[in-house]
Design goal:
This protein has helices spanning 5-12, 16-23, 33-45, 52-59, 75-93, 107-120, 132-144, 169-182, 198-215, 231-242, 259-270, 307-316, 319-325; strands at 64-70, 98-104, 125-128, 149-152, 163-167, 188-192, 224-226, 252-255, 284-288, 301-303, 332-335, 340-341, 356-360, 366-370. It is of the alpha/beta class. The longest helix has 19 residues, at 75-93.
Amino acid sequence: MRTRLKDVAERVNLSPALVSGVLNGKANVWASEETRARVFQAASELNYQPSNAARALSHGRTDTVALVYRRLSGTVYRLAYTGLVDTFSEQLQGRSYDLLVKNFATQEEVLESLRKLARAHTCDAVILWGREADTEAQGELLDSLNVRFLVKGRHEVRHPNWYQIDFDHEGMMKKALDHVVELGHRRIAFLGFPHNEGYVQCLRQGFVDAHAALLGERPNPRLMAACEDELESNSRAIEAMLTLPQDQRPTGFVIGSGNYAWHALESCLARRGEVLTLNPDGFAAAGIASYYFTLTFGEALAYQGIEIDNLAHETSRGLLDAVLRGTHGERIVRFLPDLTFAPTLGLNPAKGTPELVLSLTNVGHVHHRTKMSGHRSQ
């Protein structure tokens, strides 16, 4: 059973108000050195720890920050959130704050937890992380409850006064397109998601604007794909592009979605005996990739999934301090990660007719198998 302030007061035969004043160092409470020593000794012997609510009432703060999110299925998400917890724990410990982590299976559970945090004054601020559709409703609730919070997402249009951070999606697409154009490509396709979330729209619009600025025209609508994060729909979209007349067929690709777009692209190219390359000739690609990403055949530059940890570090540089202190500094931060060489197996499709087979194992890894016609392993 948790030791109460009343238990400490009874041990030393003093009033709870006096014991509270001594333990919290209140200047308007007088007690002899002997009495103070007895109070602290009793508190130590009884392992008394003031509750967050009590500390909040006494000091006006709890020295605790809560990271709250809705659990999403898949190893990629679990790995991402493990990195977030480690990063925020490290950053907050350096500021003498504790991190309280709360995650739930449903949005309803998240919202109820936020209400409880607000009622109990459990923390000084909340970090909201997850999908924009979830975090917007969560942020609106905390806003109505006057709880300080920081949110990941592109909420600047509807909520410009929120403390928020996310990637510079427009800048990411421009940098990826810059790379492909520098390799000499002019017919460049975009592979994105079909969702209406803010970041998805920013990725698409970022590509469109960069295409107009760099190539002097808007992209060909036939080279703009919006596919779910699965292999089949991406393969269909890419095949449709690669079967266009040669003067319309794309030789460059910018990925604004995930790993399945990359795998579908490599598979479609491999069936034609082609690979992604960093040379001016052939096919090139650059863009977003998630955890466990590895090219099978070629070479390309990608924004690696580990960049989510860098985003958390960027959050801690000043935005988190502004939230905790309630200052009116910069509220919207956008992080532009680096394009780096993607890991590759470096297989050669020219040795046979490869058929890329993707299988997701029970631990979420992506495995590659190639079937080579007329080729026998030695």
